[in-house]
């Protein structure tokens, strides 16, 4: 059994695509490799539906995708919470009402209404670092073919986003953002990023005392709270830094490596 486990967000934690940092720092790669070499586990915990190629130079033991709605560990799928056909139709119709762009995401790929729409292009620039269409995007699809664990909806205005949110089922998990672009991530009731983290370390029989998590934003707060060593990045929001067990340096200044060294995990 591994001694310790660390959970890592991607955007703003291991990479920072908007600022041009598209790959993890060399110090992060070295630190996580050393952490694993001691018999410990590293797990990605992200709102994304799959790992970007930018972190392919790292080996992870598991992945928590779509803010907890898809969990895989050592190639075994432990949880797969998918949107139904009815859910997808509802999001599509509501998106039309507010002139919004929708993206459905899952481990098999992405399904969008208009990949050439400026909102979609900007979203790719921010999070993929390119205007190019994703290689895993389905260009032609039927609703019945979609196997998605989340939807991201892109808006022209914050007002549209807030009105859209009011019409969603109240028990759905919704994360709105206005910092880089105006968007919201939508998930079904079930595990969240935080409860997925807790589910996994309990399943593996790892003591909470030996758990770490790194994050930078609002959707990382629950995860940060549910581990022993909840570490906020120095570039993170004031909100997450206010509740963190420890605040480390920024993503582009060896923050992950410095924290793991401080707590003698490497």
Automatic annotation (TrEMBL):
Keyword annotations of the record: Hydrolase
Superkingdom of the source species: Bacteria
Coiled-coil regions, chain positions: none
Keyword Hydrolase attributed: yes
GO cellular component entries: cytosol
Gene3D superfamilies: 3.30.1240.10, HAD superfamily/HAD-like
Pfam annotation, one family: Hydrolase_3
One Gene Ontology MF term: magnesium ion binding
SUPFAM superfamilies referenced in this protein's UniProt entry, alphabetically: HAD-like
NCBIfam families listed in its UniProt record: Cof-subfamily, HAD-SF-IIB
PANTHER family (alphabetical): PHOSPHATASE YKRA-RELATED, PHOSPHOSERINE PHOSPHATASE
Protein name: Cof family hydrolase
Organism: Clostridium intestinale URNW
């Amino acid at each position: 059994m591994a001694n310790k486990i660390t959970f890592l967000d991607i955007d703003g934690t291991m990479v920072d695509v908007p600022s041009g940092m598209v790959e993890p720092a060399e110090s992060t790669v070295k630190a996580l490799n050393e952490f694993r070499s001691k018999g410990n586990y590293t797990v990605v915990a992200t709102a994304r539906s799959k790992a970007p190629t930018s972190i392919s130079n790292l080996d992870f033991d598991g992945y928590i995708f779509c803010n907890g709605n898809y969990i895989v560990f050592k190639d075994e799928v432990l949880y797969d919470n998918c949107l139904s056909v009815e859910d997808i139709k509802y999001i599509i119709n509501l998106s039309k009402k507010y002139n919004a762009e929708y993206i459905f995401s899952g481990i098999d790929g992405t399904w969008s209404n208009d990949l050439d729409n400026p909102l979609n292009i900007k979203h790719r620039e921010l999070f993929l670092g390119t205007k190019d269409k994703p290689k895993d995007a389905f260009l032609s699809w039927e609703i019945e073919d979609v196997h998605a664990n989340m939807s991201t909806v892109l808006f022209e205005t914050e007002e549209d986003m807030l009105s859209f949110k009011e019409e969603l089922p109240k028990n759905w998990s919704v994360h709105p953002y206005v910092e880089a672009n105006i968007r919201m991530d939508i998930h079904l009731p079930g595990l969240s990023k935080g409860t997925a983290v807790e589910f996994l370390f309990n399943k593996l029989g790892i003591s909470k005392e030996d758990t770490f998590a790194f994050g930078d934003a609002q959707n990382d707060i629950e995860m940060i709270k549910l581990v022993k060593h909840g570490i906020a990045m120095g570039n993170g929001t004031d909100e997450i830094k206010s509740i963190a067990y420890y605040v480390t340096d920024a993503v582009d200044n060896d923050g992950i490596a410095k924290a793991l060294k401080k707590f003698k995990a490497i």
